[in-house]
Amino acid sequence: MNRAFRHPGALTHVTMALGWDPAPPTGRFGGERHDIDLNACALSFAGTQFIDGAFHEQLTSQDRAVRHLGDSVTGDGDGDNEAIAVDLTRLNPAVTTIVFLVTSYSGQHFDQIRNGFCRVIDNVTGIELLRFDLAGAGSHTGIVLGKLHRPDQNWQFDVLAEPIWAQHAIEAIPQLTGHLS
């Protein structure tokens, strides 16, 4: 599923959001629960070189243009559990690509997660550029959702939806080189 989202104007403010339901209680009396901890990640590259990111251990990029808005370790609550906001107007000019991904930090495969989803939204227009059901990633622990990049003067979003094996954002970096310009 490679598709470019051609925006009628320039993308300037984008959010990637992630949601899932908590693990159901297990055990003989239903009181035990093994939490599911998914992580939203945005990794910035200059060409093929990783230069910065925002994820659960680093909530804000060095240029402050990419911000993780809070880490959920259980999936409790309705709607989006984690979100990353990107202000493309404040981005370090060396950045050529931002890759959005989700990893299962606790190691569950996506087909074991109830009601898991990701979405990418143009904050200016409210248009949802991508909505992805995590069960579609099957028995993997990571998914490369898509990338923001500048083939010309304007930022563009390309859907990638590529399953990977990664429980942490840093483990994903070597698997991303084919998506970088």
TrEMBL record:
InterPro entries: Stress/Tellurium_Resist, TerD. Pfam families: TerD. Residues 10-162 form the TerD domain. Coiled coil: none annotated. Transmembrane segments: none annotated. PANTHER family: CAMP-BINDING PROTEIN 1-RELATED. This is TerD family protein. It comes from Nocardia halotolerans. The lineage of its organism: Bacteria, Bacillati, Actinomycetota, Actinomycetes, Mycobacteriales.
